[in-house]
Write a structure and sequence with these properties.
heterodimer; A: 308 residues; alpha+beta; globular; B: 584 residues; alpha/beta; 21-stranded mixed sheet; 31% helix; disordered N terminus
């Protein structure tokens, strides 16, 4: 294409990217790739690959699109596991922009009508950086508001029904329906990683397997790199580290947001109860998790705390 | 009362012109029967006589873009208009992509109409800005005013509705649909005079404040011709039952909230009221409906052709049970809470289905994510072979699924698929979704409207340009690889009228490749693409009959054209553009 475009590469296919992009991200690519170097080769060893879903959501796809030095073809491939390292490089090259965009967008539609923006921001404020692109998905503002209100009242209803009131809607129609509601994917974000993932809680029956899966997703490097020798060793070291996120010995701790919007440490409540209340997960830096409760050695004494 | 133009006598003597053998009066009578505005446009192009006859006999005018023409031009050409439909803002304003105070104010139109169309009866507005003063002006200026429909409009409050209710003595229709309205109170309903009886259509489903129920009940009782009633969520089941008794001849009903608890006696009374409503064709509302009370509806569903459950988060079981009672369904709108299992029930129970819209209940994934997948869509396609309109929000899709779907239903005229994560590939093969949309345009030769999503390369657009010869509206987001994609569409889709694009890598070359085409289109929207101000200026210079408008956002690069709106106009550049709209 001609030079009037003023941007990189004239938007060629997937492979082309402007030189300037690569230069600026080279160092970041190295750092981040380290974290995920085991990913593509190990992909086949995941027990149930279908569960592993790159839930990039909208944080990369659309947010800071304006004349950003990323070509579309590469952005387009972001959801392919094989391309993960190259995707991450782009993701990490624009983290500040996306945080900015995310903060702006998390308040709701930016250039929206006053009422729509107000009501969405009250309810939908997802402040943890998994941003919402303005005007996407393409649903009318009116419908968005009514969905928001409906979600509120539905949650209130579910709480009431759990209190064994007359409104046992689910148990009246289908005893299995109540459980069915708790199955499915939740988003997982880790501090410092712009790309979120999704985990199928359905596939787990206890905290340990969940924690192990999350560590495999996000911390693969430290265990895999150090134990590449034999698969037996690798498994062992994986198992040994399977509880790092839960016991507080690592730099990160696993937390979740419950239905009331509070952030809680994972592991406090029985698994079943956790399933009914979890909305999403976050791998938080231990240093930031201070407000969430007393130290991890005292698991029994943990109390619910206000979100950070 | 209708001023008629006297025919010049000497024309009738010429035998060479076939048109002249008809006196004007006859021609106008015949043309009066032509209703479709597209046909009327064609009629007006035949010859001067027909142009004149057509303009004198036109009673309804449809203006798809309020800035494409001025009110003065409209009233000069069509002196006898009684019904006007006007659309204002670009469609993407529905998704907050257009800043407030953009324009499309009805005021200047009303002033001109008040002078020239004293007999105006109907006004239908979509995406226009309407103030309370305008509504009051409307109510006072047109003594014969009958029908007001406001869809996705903004700028007014319930005070404006009160003015309409107070002054429009002959009102037959008041349709307030999904507007950004300042809902002060429900008092407006009480403003209908006690001797007012002409109402046939009343839709206030999207207003939030309580209306005085007794006033509503009296209104419904005395308006014997009322056949459409859509109430808001504050009307309880018990109140609904009382309304149904007053208006058993309803053909369209929008219920209030379906939630509050009823005693057994109340429930059976409700069921009985519904069984009296045997004429219902359209049912909507049902907010917060649960399995508990849905069976009360069953008797009323036999003749339903349109069921709108997009406000009711039903689960698959209760939804399936309801569908069993709706064998004649042709249009269905649901939330994705019914999931694939619910859609299988659609396939099993609704063989006459022509339109399906599945909306997401949790678009921002606040909680645990469910929704519908490709399986539900496939199931519908096997059972509903007449399906021709679909709007489907989902989180995963495959090329193979879409190929199967269009094999089963090749008659699609409107195919709007929204895979909610931008740039998402086929989740099984990890390929782009190109093959899916290629199959759609190749198989569905009658396709008029298409919305694409998922990971798409230029190949999709090559196919669209090559095969979608009847395509009129195309919506694109987060798709394409290069300018070539858009060039293919502009070059190939002969009948394209509306093209709306956001967040795609199309730049000046693409924009300018279509510059001759834009005059045959209603409008082009491009936001967050790669178009620059220079490109837009060039287009504006080359095509003076196009309005090329750029909306600038604060803090963005001066050379980038963030939002571009291009449309043909005989009215010249806008005179009411706000500061953030630059007309080039």
């Amino acid at each position: 294409m001609d030079g009037t475009l003023g941007l990189l590469g004239g938007g060629g296919g997937g492979g082309s990217s402007g030189a300037s992009t690569n230069e600026s991200t080279v160092s970041k690519v190295e750092v981040v790739e380290q974290d995920f170097v085991g990913m593509s080769s190990e992909a086949s060893s995941y027990p149930a690959e279908a569960e592993l879903e790159l839930g990039l959501g909208l944080s990369l796809g659309g947010g800071g699109v304006k004349a950003k030095p990323c070509t579309w073809g590469e952005r387009g491939r972001i959801l392919t596991a094989k391309d993960f390292p190259s995707v991450v490089s782009h993701g990490s090259s624009v983290p500040s922009r996306f945080t900015d965009r995310a903060t702006a967008a998390s308040v709701g539609p930016v250039s929206g009508t006053k009422r729509a923006a107000d009501s969405v921001s009250q309810e939908g404020g997802s402040p943890t950086g998994v941003s919402q692109v303005v005007g996407w998905p393409p649903i009318r503002a009116y419908r968005m508001n009514s969905l928001v209100n409906q979600a509120k009242s539905q949650r209130a209803e579910e709480d009431k029904s759990r209190d064994a009131s007359k409104k046992k809607i689910y148990s009246k129609t289908d005893p299995a329906a109540k459980e069915k509601c708790h199955l499915g994917f939740v988003k997982v974000n880790m501090d410092g990683v712009p790309i979120g993932r999704k985990v199928d809680l359905n596939a787990h029956s206890c905290y340990e397997t969940l924690a192990q899966m999350l560590e495999d997703m996000f911390f693969r490097s430290t265990t895999a790199v150090s134990s590449i020798g034999s698969s037996g060793e690798k498994e062992q070291s994986q198992k040994a580290s399977g509880y790092k996120l839960l016991d507080g010995s690592s730099e990160f701790v696993l937390t979740y947001e419950d239905k009331e919007g509070d952030w809680m440490l994972v592991g406090d409540v029985p698994w079943g109860m956790f399933l009914t209340s979890v909305k999403r997960l976050r791998i938080m830096r231990t240093s930031e998790a201070n407000g969430l409760g007393p130290r991890f050695q005292e698991r029994n004494d943990r109390q619910r705390c206000k979100p950070i | 009362m209708d001023p008629k133009r006297k025919k010049d006598c000497h024309d009738s003597g010429e035998s060479t012109r076939v048109a002249s053998t008809f006196p004007d009066e006859v021609l106008e009578r015949v043309l009066a029967l032509v209703k479709s505005h597209k046909d009327r446009s064609s009629v007006s192009l035949v010859c001067k006589d027909w142009y004149d006859a057509e303009r004198w006999s036109r009673t309804h005018v449809f203006i798809g873009n309020c800035y494409s023409v001025s009110p003065e031009i409209v009233v000069r050409r069509f002196p006898n208009v009684r019904s006007v439909t006007l659309k204002g803002k670009p469609r993407f304003s529905d998704f907050n992509l257009v800043p407030p105070n953009w324009g499309a104010d009805i005021r200047c139109w009303l002033v001109v109409f008040a002078a020239k169309y004293r007999c105006l009866e109907e006004l239908r507005l979509k995406r226009m800005t309407v103030s309370d003063e305008s509504l009051e002006f409307l109510a006072l200026s047109f003594p014969n005013f009958k029908a007001l429909s406001l869809h996705s409009c903004d700028g007014f409050s319930t005070d404006g509705l009160a003015a309409i209710a107070t002054h429009c003595k002959n009102l037959t229709e008041l349709n307030i649909q999904e507007n950004d309205i300042y809902d002060k109170s429900g008092c407006w309903l009480s403003c209908f005079p006690e001797n007012f009886t002409s109402l046939e259509v009343l839709n206030f489903a999207y207003l939030n404040n309580d209306v005085n129920f007794e006033a509503l009940e009296r209104l419904v009782s005395r308006c014997k011709s009322l056949n459409v009633l859509k109430v808001n969520k504050n009307i309880t089941l018990e109140q609904l039952q009382r309304l149904l008794i007053c208006a058993p001849k309803l053909t369209e009903l929008g219920t209030g909230s379906f939630l509050p608890e009823l005693t057994d006696r109340q429930y059976s009374e409700l069921k009985r009221s519904f069984s009296i409503c045997s004429n219902l064709n359209v049912l909507s509302g049902l907010s917060e409906a649960t399995a508990l009370y849905l069976p009360a509806l069953y008797p009323a569903c036999t003749n339903l052709t349109f069921l709108n459950l997009s406000d009711a988060a039903l689960q698959s079981e209760e939804f399936a049970k309801l569908l069993v009672h709706c064998p004649r369904l042709r249009r269905l709108w649901v939330l994705d809470t019914v999931e694939d299992k619910g859609l299988e029930a659609v396939g099993s129970n609704c063989p006459l289905l022509e339109e399906l819209r599945v909306f997401p209940s949790d678009p921002y994934e606040e909680g645990i994510v469910h929704g519908v997948t490709e399986s539900g869509f496939i199931a519908v396609s096997y059972g509903c072979r007449r399906l021709h309109y679909v709007l489907y929000f989902c989180r995963q899709m495959t090329n193979a699924a879409v190929e199967t779907i269009v094999q089963n239903c090749p008659d699609f005229t409107h195919f709007r698929l929204c895979i909610m994560t931008p740039c998402q590939p086929d989740y099984r093969t990890n390929e782009p979704m190109d093959k899916a949309f290629c199959a759609v345009v190749k198989t569905c030769t009658k396709l008029r409207r298409l919305a694409v999503s998922g990971l798409l390369t230029d190949m999709t657009f090559e196919y669209i340009g090559k095969y979608a010869k009847n395509l009129e509206t195309l919506s694109v987001a987060f798709a394409g690889s290069s300018d070539w994609g858009m060039q293919c569409v502009l070059g190939g889709c002969r009948k394209l009228r509306k093209l709306e694009i956001r967040d795609c890598p199309f730049g000046n070359a693409a924009l300018l490749s279509g510059f001759e085409k834009y005059e045959s289109m209603r409008s082009l929207w491009m936001s967050d693409c790669k178009v620059t101000m220079n490109g837009c200026r060039f287009l504006a210079k080359e095509m003076p009959r196009l309005n090329v408008e750029v909306m600038k956002e604060d803090g963005s690069d001066d050379s980038q054209a963030d939002k571009v709106y291009v449309y043909r106009s005989v009215a010249g550049p806008r005179r009411d553009a706000p500061p953030f709209v630059l007309t080039l």
